[in-house]
Write a structure and sequence with these properties.
By secondary structure, the protein is mainly β. A hairpin with a 4-residue loop joins strand 37 and strand 38. The strands form 11 sheets. It has a 6-stranded antiparallel sheet, with helices on one face. The chain has a 5-stranded antiparallel sheet with strand order 4-14-21-16-19, with no helix packed on it.
Length: 694
């Protein structure tokens, strides 16, 4: 913006350039139908920024909306802008009639001039459609932003005469008597000034089918009436103007085209009719050129209202049946073609092409459907088809519908907006998880004492985040019924059972199975104490034991049982130690020792354990044979044979040992006595000739 002050003594002038932090104009919203627009708003300046002037901003101002009863609001958008600290968050929240609105879009840029640099400019935009619809024709008061402290803290704002604050509301309304138009709203934040005297840009997404009855409007900030140096707005190289309110060379001049006011200090709410020679049928864009040889201008929005009669085809995939079925790749697709934001009927035979994204991220053409009936303005037509999705297509992909589009991307009919022809459906096919890897479980125990941890059947290397449950039958697992409670301590009722495990990922499930087998361990007996005498001369309590002689006693004679003997319980339980003690075995502990017995059922590899107590007895100290008198009897019949009572010398033999604690056996030979063979059965009446008794 260019300001100057003329006094009696000197001329003081300012020129401005723009530091580029601007935002290019883009289409924000499009309406097609019987629409028009109006802008209301007001300045917050107390006067035009020309000397003498007061560098002060109001904290509130108002404007009134007066629509006719048949004009229905369909869109309303609040814009505001001012000079001040662009980093102040309070500048991006405004109030209308006490209701607070936070900016949907925030803008800022910096102006510089020959004498001042980096003058901060902020702006905001927010959709207030519902608020305006709810309140209707009333006076609207803008407040909530106060720049006066910045006017003090940032003196360049006043010194440069670039102090301003203002607001405007763009209202789109529908009126059934109006001819159909295409109404586009473009938002941006561009500036033009002395060192940047011209800006050029395009407004796109247009469809011109009729050159008459079109118009363009805008909101601009910081214009001044008293500066008119090559200040123009050009559309397709045609300079616009509207005398006397808006001279062609001073287009930004504090005016409001709807009220006719020329006191909208430092802002403009204006519109201009577009003559027939400005537009051509078939135009899809218009060129905008804004010039200013001195005054600094900030452009905030443009609105185009173009006469048109075109359909506007859109498509939506409304339902996809079968997607919710696990492992299913045949789906029924429902879709709808709309002609909602249109100014003409959509003809028949409009193509709707479908594509899908493959595993490489590429689009794959599927097929093309065609509309069958004309679709009136605001109407729609429903369709459905069955789609078989190939296995090569990933389960998470996109199904794309494009209306008025053939396989090759061509658009056979002209319509209002070709940018809204696509609908993307996020396709998520449900795939069952992989069945859990399992292993069979075996346990050696009696059935009543058999408790399985079923979770041990699962692969420990597989991290499982899904829900896992165990069941008695495959049907129960499929239906998630009759879960086995406490699977960590499951006591089966049969020696062999099949367990079914269900894996559920929240959508789909998979079932696997495994076997559990209870193996009965050897049924064994606890052996009696194994006693042997120490026949050694030393009598230290050591002797040999024929352990094998106890096997039948332990096993009950079961030929399927294998018995091993060990000196420790740990060795007995360590099944990697296959061979136990050799028999005969000499005890390692004097007089007594515990031997640990492992019994293995060779038919099922189950084991049982018991203990065998070894007892070593010292020989009794009896009379020496020389001290035992002979037993003599008279041979009356002189036949050399008599009957002897061998037990008559028991007291002599025991040599004082108590008879109650000892047993005396008699043999005719030393060998028989040593081997405990051929014992004399009736020692009280032993018939013999002369001989030695052992």
């Amino acid at each position: 913006m260019l300001k100057f002050h003329l006094s009696l003594f000197f001329l003081f002038s300012l020129t401005f350039s723009v530091v580029s932090q601007e935002q290019e104009f883009e289409l924000h919203t499009q309406f097609n139908g019987s629409y028009d627009f109006i802008m209301i708003g007001n300045t917050m300046n107390v006067g035009e920024n020309t000397f003498p002037f007061t560098c002060q901003a109001l904290t509130e101002s108002s404007a009134t909306l007066n629509l006719e009863p048949d004009q229905e609001v369909v869109g309303a958008y609040l814009y505001w802008s001012g000079s001040g600290d662009v980093n102040n968050p309070e500048y991006y929240t405004a109030e209308i009639n006490g209701t607070e609105f936070e900016a949907d879009l925030e803008y800022n840029l910096f102006f510089s001039s020959t004498n001042f640099s980096d003058i901060p400019i902020f702006g905001g935009f927010v959709d207030v459609t519902e608020f305006i619809i709810d309140n209707g024709n009333i006076e609207y008061e803008f407040s909530g932003i106060d720049i006066n402290q910045d006017l003090i803290d940032l003196p360049d704002l006043c010194n440069s005469q670039f102090n301003y604050l203002g607001w405007g509301i763009l209202i789109i309304y529908e009126e059934t008597e109006l001819e159909p138009v295409q109404l586009n709203i473009y938002n941006g934040f561009l500036a033009v000034g002395n060192e940047n005297q011209e800006i050029d840009f395009e407004l796109t997404n247009l469809n011109v089918t009729e050159t008459s009855g079109s118009s363009i409007g805008f909101i601009a900030w910081e214009g001044d009436d008293f500066i008119a140096v090559d200040e123009t707005l050009q559309v397709n190289n045609v300079i616009l103007g509207n005398l006397p309110l808006n001279p062609p060379d001073n287009i930004f001049n504090n005016t409001n085209s709807w009220t006719g006011s020329d006191e909208l200090w430092n802002m403009d709410l204006d519109f201009f009719e577009l003559d027939d020679d400005i537009l051509e049928v078939g135009d899809t864009s218009i060129d905008i050129k804004v010039t200013s040889g001195q005054d600094g201008i900030i452009l905030h929005n443009f609105v185009t209202r173009i006469s048109t009669e075109l359909p506007d085809a859109t498509v939506e995939i409304t339902n996809l049946l079968g997607e919710e079925i696990c492992d299913n790749r045949e789906v029924n697709v429902d879709f709808t073609v709309f002609n909602a934001n249109a100014t003409s009927t959509l003809p028949t035979n409009v193509p709707v092409s479908f594509f899908i994204i493959d595993e490489n991220g590429d689009e794959v053409f599927l097929f093309t459907e065609f509309t069958t009936n004309p679709i009136l303005i605001g109407e729609s037509e429903d369709f459905s088809f069955t789609l078989d999705i190939e296995e090569t297509i990933p389960e998470n992909t996109q199904l794309i519908a494009r209306v008025n589009t053939d396989e090759f991307g061509n658009n056979p009919i002209q319509e209002n907006n070709l940018e809204n022809n696509e609908f993307i459906y996020e396709l998520n096919l449900l795939v069952s998880p992989e069945p859990l890897q399992t292993q069979n479980l075996t346990l050696c125990a009696n059935l009543t004492e058999s408790f399985f941890n079923l979770e041990e059947a699962l692969d420990e290397t597989e991290e499982i985040e899904d829900e896992v449950s165990f069941h008695f039958t495959f049907e129960d697992a499929e239906e998630d019924e009759n879960q086995i409670p406490n699977p960590e301590e499951y006591n089966p009722s049969e020696l062999e059972e099949t367990i079914f495990v269900r894996r559920f990922d929240g959508n789909c499930f998979a079932v696997s199975e495994f076997e559990i087998e209870t193996r009965i361990p050897p049924q064994i007996n606890d052996p009696e104490i194994f006693s042997e005498c120490d026949f050694s001369e030393e009598q230290l309590g050591f002797t040999e034991f024929d352990l094998d002689t106890k096997i039948d006693e332990i096993t009950g004679g079961n030929p399927d049982y294998e018995v091993e003997f060990f000196t420790t319980q740990a060795d007995a339980e360590d099944l990697e130690i296959e061979n136990g003690l050799a028999s005969p075995y000499t005890n390692e502990n004097a007089f007594s020792q515990t031997i640990f017995v492992r019994v293995t059922d060779i038919t099922n590899e189950c084991v049982s354990f018991t203990e065998l107590e070894l007892e070593i007895n010292l020989l009794p100290v009896i009379a020496d044979a020389l001290n035992i008198p002979a037993i003599e009897e008279c041979d009356d019949d002189e036949n050399g044979i008599e009957t002897f009572n061998l037990t008559s010398l028991q007291g002599n033999i025991l040599n004082g040992l108590p008879l109650s604690d000892h047993q005396i056996q008699y043999y005719e030979t030393l060998t028989d006595a040593q081997n405990n063979e051929n014992e004399i059965i009736n020692p009280e009446e032993f018939t013999s000739g002369e001989q030695e008794i052992f």
